[in-house]
Amino acid sequence: MSNPMDHVHVSTHPLVLHKLALLRNEMTEPKKFRELVREIAQLLFYEATQDLSLARLTVQTPLGPAQGYEVAERVGIMPILRAGLGMSEAVVEILPTVHVWHLGLYRDHETLRPVTYYNKLPAEPDIDLSMIVDPMLATGGSAVAAVDILKNWGAKRIKFLGLIAAPEGVQMLSTAHPDVEIYLAAIDSHLNERGYIVPGLGDAGDRQFGTG
User: Fold this and answer.
1) How many CB atoms lie under 10 A from the CB of residue 91?
2) What pLDDT, on the 0 to 100 scale, is given for residue 184?
3) Cys-Cys with 30: which of 39, 46, 77, 210 at CB 3.0–4.6 Å?
């Protein structure tokens, strides 16, 4: 019998762990916070795309032709607004050919349920790999809703890329969508009564944009 956590990947890379500690620090100002989000997102994206298919190609160097490769899959990323924006910008820096679709979800503070207010998906699926990016996987409600939207749209292969998760969020996403691989920098202790990850890092959107 397969382990239900086999599709959950928590990075152990020294650079990820080093930068994550700086990200958590309440003294880290928004500019540095945004830089750390971008850097960690790029490292996690590197880990999450090791199975991308490649196609051979030939390039001309100053000394002659050389055999090489190019990414053969069409990748689309869906940042959950607004906190996912910093992560999506980081991914575009590494792979400029990605398609970027924005999804607006907010968590109702009374019910802790996600509410969709913006969806920029095209009419038909035109990619091979869809990747949801959101710094925090807390209750899991927004992630599940995002996967639901992608699957209803026609996406077949989906991954989730986040920075910090609560066990409750991992469990909810894994139960609802066991086929979705999850890539994280850390899984923390628990959710508090307000639905925030503990110890977490606070509100990722507020800390990126200096609000709240």
Assistant:
1) 24
2) 98
3) 210
pLDDT tens digit sequence for 155-185: 999 999 999 999 999 999 999 999 999 999 9
User: Among 90, 99, 94, 101, which residue's Cα sits nearest to residue 162?
Assistant: 90
> Which amino acid belongs to residue 101?
W
Alpha-helical (H) ranges within the chain are 14-24, 30-48, 85-94, 141-153, 167-176, 204-209
Contact 173, 143 (CB under 8 A): yes
Separation CA 19–CA 17 (nearest Å): 6
Q: Is 12 helix (H, G, I), strand (E, B) or coil?
A: coil
Domains belonging to the chain, first-starting first, are: 8-209 (3.40.50.2020)
Strands 64-71 and 54-61: antiparallel
Among positive and negative, which fits the CA dihedral 29, 32, 38, 43? negative
